[in-house]
Amino acid sequence: MSDLKIEGYEFKPGYRGMAEDTGSAQTMFKGVHWGKAMMWIFLLSDTFIFSCFLISYMKGRGSTPVEWPNPSEVFALHVGGVDVPLLLIAIMTFVLITSSGTMALAVKYGYEKNRKMCGWLILATAIGGLTFVGMQAFEWSKLIHEGVRPWENPFGAKQFGSFFFMITGFHGTHVSIGVIFLFIYAYKTFAGHYDERKRGWFTSIKGDYVEIEILGLYWHFVDLVWVFIFAFFYLW
Amino acid sequence: MHPGIIFFLVILGSVLFHIFTPWYWTDVASNWGSMDDTITLTFWVGGGVFIAVCLFMVYCVFKFSYKEGRRAEYKPEDKKLEKILTWATTLGVAALLAPGLIVWNQYINVPKNAIHIDVMAWQWGWQYRLPGEDGKLGSTKIKNINDNNPFGIILEDPNGKDDILIQSDVIHLKNNRPVKILLRSVDVLHNWYVPQFRAKMDAVPGVVTYYWFEPNKAGEYEVLCAEYCGVGHYGMRGRVFVKNEEDYKNWLQEQETFSDLIAKQEEIEFSKTKLAKK
Amino acid sequence: MSEDNNDKIIIQSQSSESISGGGSGSTTDIDYVRPAEVGDQDLYHGHSFITKWVFCQDAKVIGVQYFLLATFTGIIGLILSWLMRLQLGFPELASFMTAEHYYQFVTMHGMIMVVYFLTALFLGGFGNFLIPLMVGARDMVFPYLNMVSFWMFFIAVVVLLASFFVPGGPTGSGWTLYPPQSILEGTPGSGMGILLMCLSLILFVAGFTMGGLNYLITVLQARTRGMTLMRMPLTVWGIFTATVLAMLAFPALLVGSLMMSLDKILGTSFFMPTILQAGEVLEYGGGSPILFQHLFWFFGHPEVYIVALPAFGIISDLISVHSRKNIFGYRMMVWAIVVIGGLSFFVWAHHMYVSGMNPWFGFFFATTTLIIAVPTAMKVYNWVLTLWRGNIRLNTVMLWCLGFIVTFVNGGITGIFLGNVTVDVPLSDTYFVIAHFHMVMGIAPLMVIMGAVYHWFPLVTGRMLSEKLGKWHFWFTFLGAYSIYFPMHYLGFIGVPRRYFEMYDSPYVTSAVGMNEFISTAAFIVGAAQFILIYNIIKSLKTGKPAGKNPWQANSLEWLTPSVPPEHGNWGDRLPVVHRWPYDYSVPGAKEDFITQTTPPSDVTNSEVEKT
Fold first, then answer.
1. Backbone angles phi, psi at B74, to 5 degrees
2. How confident is the model at residue C502, as a pLDDT?
3. Which contacts (CB < 8 Å, 24+ apart) does range C544-549 have?
4. CB contact under 8 A, C277 and B230
């Protein structure tokens, strides 16, 4: 942000500058769009939701007297006569992380006002997200087929099923909401709403490419959370 | 009337209420007189602060009430005064905290000679189990509970055989002997609370919680459930008798052990089959 | 990432007119305030009844909507408390009440008052109305989201009240909703009741998050020129910090409610261990009831401060305005609010000393809890020191302030009893707890709300409330409420447990019968006295004295709008420019005993100008 200029305001480097920004009038985060600041704070709040889920999961796993199932067996995929542990999940994670990359590129092309590239990359991101949700649906149905339910689990502690479905379900909902918004934003990009600064359908706020960056923040966050869920459920 | 007078009367009334109140705590009947001491200490320090702050406020209201043309003092800060107040408060708070932590340390460390009592709570009642000759309680499992095994004792556990079972909400305790209350619940949260003993702890299904006290005054006391446990919460009472050594022994001998219960049931079973044969 | 593309934005001055602002026309150096960083906010103006008053995007209207709906639920909570007191004081008159009813009323009263009344009123009501005005913004930064926030709250209230009409009635598990009992037979409303409660809470949290994002970003990013953080009125500081707490604490409630709903609907066992009920072992097994208590109190304790911090802020402003004196130790007050807010996340398990959690936690949580007493005490000292050498107007607003100080100090000190782990053991789950929290987070915040109503009513409606009725209202409420809760502590000393439908003939409480009758009578009177306020409001709306501009001669921005009551957009065609903090009362050498925030330094040449 070194090139940001504000009339009458002098930026200082380091902690001193941070303190000065905090103490200054008008804005605390200089040059940060309202929506972007809002998204950051929303994500902080959302972090607490996922932390509560994962801490509950740890506590639940610790306090149940029945043995916890072995993840590399439960989540194994039977391919060509061999059980490959964590195969599906590796692909899912790969797809989701890749979609984060396309999202970042979409933001870049957005600021360059490259409407076409930006739109296609958002669409690619949405399709990545959709693939992820699809594979998750496949995994859910596989587990359900094997008899795992939120209230019971043939492989061990019943809390395994409860926490797995609840937390991945909650995360999957986040991804799905993200996908819906990605499609909407892709449409708006192609239709040129951001170039023309057309007002939003409900909010009547003028469109701006910064909205793509805000959605990008959300998308990266959802990916990051997935990494934690992955570590807690599949590697522990 | 000047509002300051009414505020003053409120403070005065509070003090008088405290002096003349007929409602005050019951005589302590356990070793936890130290808890009363911590309450008393907090009461005097806190009460003093309350009266001081309120009287200061009342004084200000009298002295500085609005006069046309007068100017208030302009003084945004007084670093020195603020520093003094901060440190004085910190000291006061630390002085209240320290005794609390010391007594808590005693509360969670149970003396070695304490008699263990299994207090089993359900909606809505209590029953008790004391260790037999071996001084150990047998382990239990909720799924084992049935008419023949009301405490769910694991049959294979040799410690459980001589356990003394008290299927009643009346329990006797030996005077001047510490007891460790081991709380468990088969359904929801409960709390075994005798006001005169001061101590309490929730019974939580799925885990065993504990606390201890040493009754030091013979007599009869009422047990109250102190954690909301459903619609029958207010009726979940019991009784405790604190007895001297001899009376306690006599009472203990009248109680049935787990092996007695098993034997009795086998007898019934036996006579039943006999009857059936006839 | 791709941030480099964002770097070349140059933010330009929004206003080309005189940079000195304040309308003095002077362009001397001392009046210089740097130009605006962001362009003027683009507002959606309502054009029909529906868009102006129902689905309205004006924060002031939304604030009033929040205020009215919260007051409505609060009155329901009040009526429930009457019914409870009838049962406790005069059980022979309450023969229509069963234990089930009693517990349902206890639960709904608690939840309504804490969440749907106090939280919604302080943050939704006062927050929406005051934040944009006090920081000099045209509106909240996301007006549409703000509107949705209110309507989510509306739906949450409807769902909550709907639970009165479902089979089994509303949940009767206590406002803490502890499992396992909350979802098991044996507790009233363990079917639909608890589910609707969880659903309503989830909706409330979702709605609140939308509002909360607005309050935070408005304070952080939409202040007017010259408005630094350290020039904000303490009201804004209180509401801001409380909103931060809410954004971080409500997630725990959301997760807890969701998991409990799943335990009920799907039969998962998050909070449910093996349970034997009525001779049968239930399907549940392996869960931890204490986990819910941790989640609940991780929300529940910050929740106390979500209510208290706005009250702290508002009361500071009211005391300052009506003592004609700056708030003593402003910086200390700000830091105390922030420190209390931060610490409030590390004290939650002091509600759980006797819950059966690991007893070693007791040491940690007792220490943190008592540390929080220090900044709180500093705030109390600063309030009374503000009165010292002031010029105190003993009007209705000031009476509420004084009432607040008495009740808050009383309730704060009993908090030290309950926060200190061993002192808590004999007192927990007794009437002492009831008395404590009603005094500190029931009556004390209520005093603030009332004071704030009398103070800001002229701003909202343009008319003054009747002082005479206001004083009657105050004395009935203050003396009545104090005589309800002060003696109640002594019931706790005896050891009377809370949440008892009746005591039968327990030897501890025969002496308490008289006191219960007295408390109940006082409760009926205090409740009824609130209708004085309603009458006062209705009467003053029509016949009240016109307030004119700035009737209290206050400094802060909300009184300096071009029209009173302020219109949509608040500031006419020019945003205000701030030159000083809002507490320049009785500045030596100044013409009058107040200097508004927009007065440029060149207008007050003779006086010493403060530094912040």
1. -105, 105
2. 84
3. C544/C461, C544/C463, C544/C464, C544/C465, C544/C466, C545/C463, C545/C464, C546/C462, C546/C463, C546/C464, C547/C458, C547/C459, C547/C461, C547/C462, C547/C463, C547/C464
4. no
Closest CA to B122 of B64, B56, B167, B63: B167
Entry pTM: 0.93
Is the pLDDT at A114 greater than 70? The verdict is: yes
Q: Are strands B179-185 and B125-130 parallel, antiparallel or unpaired?
A: unpaired
More confident residue, B68 or A216: A216
> Could you tell me how many residues make up chain B?
278
Residue-range domain boundaries for chain C: 52-272, 579-612
8 Å CB contact between C100 and C183: no
pLDDT digits (tens, 9 = 90+) for C361-376: 999 999 999 999 999 9
**H or E stretch covering A51:** helix A34-63
Report pLDDT for A224.
95
Q: How far apart are CA C612 and CA C609, in angstroms?
A: 9
Contacts of C286 in chain A (CB under 8 A): 63-66, 157-159
- Residue A71 CB partners (closer than 8 Å, separation 6+): A86, A233, A234, A235, A236
C2/A111 touch (CB, cutoff 8 Å), yes or no: yes
Chains B, C: CB pairs < 8 Å: 326
Give the architecture-level CATH label for domain C52-272.
Up-down Bundle (1.20)
- For residue A50 the two structure tokens come to 């996922």
State whether residue B144 sits within 8 Å of chain C by CB: no
> C409–B191: do the CB atoms touch at under 8 Å?
no
Please check whether residue B80 touches C, CB under 8 A: no
Distance from CA of A86 to the nearest CA of C (A): 26
The mean pLDDT of chain B is 91
Instruction: Tell me the nearest-neighbour CA distance from A233 into chain C, angstroms.
Output: 16
The residue extents of the domains of chain B are 3-64+77-108, 115-271
Pick the CATH number of B115-271 from 2.40.160.20, 3.40.1280.10, 3.40.50.300, 2.60.40.420: 2.60.40.420
Whether C402 sits inside 8 A of B61 (CB atoms) is: yes
At C8, phi and psi to the nearest 5? Answer: -90, 15
Please check the confidence at residue C612 and state whether its pLDDT lies above 80: no
Cβ-based neighbours of C238, under 8 Å, separated by 6 or more: C309, C310, C311, C312, C313, C314, C316, C337
- Measured CA to CA, the distance from residue A5 to residue A26 in angstroms comes to 15
Burial tier of C45 (Cβ tally within 10 Å: 0-12, 13-18, 19+): exposed
For chain A, what percentages of helix, strand and coil (3-state, to nearest 5) are there? Answer: 70, 5, 25
Q: Which among B168, B127, B174 has a CA at the least distance from the CA of B30? A: B174
Pairwise CB contact (< 8 Å): C229 & A23? yes
What part of A 170-189 touches C (C-beta under 8 Å)? none
Q: Can you list the domains of chain A with their CATH numbers?
A: 1-31 (no CATH), 33-235 (1.20.120.80)
**Average pLDDT of span A174-178:** 96
